[in-house]
Amino acid sequence: MVAVTSKPKILGIGYPKYAIAEFKALQEKYDIHYFVPSDRKQVIGEVKRLCDEEGPFDGGYVLFQTSAYSPFKRDMLAPLLTTGTCGIWAQGGAGYDDVEVDFITDNNSWFTNTPYAVTNATADMGAFLTLAALRGVYEGESNVRAGKWRNGMALTTDPNGLKLGIVGMGAIGKSMAVKLQVFGMKVYYYNRKQLSPEEEKALGVTYSTFEDLITTSDVISLNCPLTPETRHLIGEKEFAKMKDGVFIVNTARGAVIDESALVEALKSGKVSRAGLDVFEEEPKINPYLLTCNRVTLQPHLGAMSTGTIHTGEKAIFSNLEAYFETGTPITPVNKPLRAVKQKQ
Prior knowledge:
2 domains; five-stranded parallel β-sheet; 38% helix; D-isomer_DH_CS1; oxidoreductase
């Protein structure tokens, strides 16, 4: 008699909004126990309850829009990861500064993100914020709504011929570079690793040192991940080196910029205008930024589009399938030394 093996068990935080057909197909292959999250206390409690009542689990996932209950640290994930059975934690989004990756790795589990799902939507937001900053979009709209038309408004700035300096030339930075060259901008970039000459030529971009980039760019766009090394990468000293009247765009993470230094640079006129989708202590925002009509603000909306969420949800499920079928996920962030052997 052939022994019947049970399906791998997956603990899920969230039900998909768009990849419903893919999720139902996943349910046919795996034993999925999911719940709908609300706040952090509820999520921590539900993870523990499910692990106690239905565990141990072989994998886990969390979907998008997690700000109400992140970060994902051992106080939440320990019941799932410390059993010796869970081999993967699959998560949506490109950034993972709110994830205790070392804890996941130390428990011999893979951690995956969805780095390509958010590319176009976030780059679109970056391009929009660049144009909004250059053309004073928020100031103009505020005038119209107040019945002032163009009263008190100065001429705005054309993008054509300006030097755009991109800090972080990953997938989002590359996409943003291509989009803004359509408006005649000359794109330079700084990255930890320089692109190949062939890719630079294909993208139409030029490598620069960080120092040269911040001192010579007309517009500086932050597109790098938040790490201990990039926290407050742009601060008082960096602003002082920039051109007078520089434009700042940030769709990466708020803490890449020292927000108090940005406020002072806006007050002094060192920074002419800014376009921000992320903030250092979001959703809390510095009061000056809320009242300054030279700043266009968005509520971390870059990746929040239907196409992005659909693509991202599918990518999460694909990572789970790849792990259970091959032992290796598609977009791993880490590499556990002794990965948990998956169920066959």
